[in-house]
Design brief:
With about 100 residues, the protein is α+β, with helices and mostly antiparallel strands. It is built from 1 helix and 7 strands. Strand 1 and strand 2 form a beta hairpin.
């Protein structure tokens, strides 16, 4: 619902639909590649990315969230934990995809 204020100062509720949507709900396409990473918080300032029992990278909160993969292939400095996690997950997805999936 979208609230609008009428000239008399009274708010009214209106339905809003994106133009051209015809009222149908759009679903996102299925993901071609799902990554099996899990995140473990080891302390108040440290997180590890795991594939099974293998640690792939760590994030440490210093001035910012500092990301480093174990093999040194990816590093980053982020203002949000989610951004650092997203960088490692994107790198992992790219590094494990086959050329036909749009990766490497």
């Amino acid at each position: 619902m979208l609230s609008t204020v009428q000239p008399d100062g009274v708010a009214s509720e209106q339905s809003f639909r994106h133009p051209g949507s015809c009222g149908t709900e759009r679903k996102p396409p299925p993901m071609a590649h799902v990554h099996p990473l899990t995140w473990r918080q080891d302390s108040a300032t440290t997180w590890c990315a795991l594939e099974g029992d293998t640690v792939l990278g760590t994030i440490v909160l210093e001035r910012q969230y500092e990301l480093a993969s174990v093999d040194g292939a990816v590093r980053g400095s982020h203002s949000a934990l989610g951004s650092a996690q997203a960088q490692l997950e994107a790198w992992y997805q790219w590094s494990t995809s086959s050329p036909g999936d749009g990766g490497r």
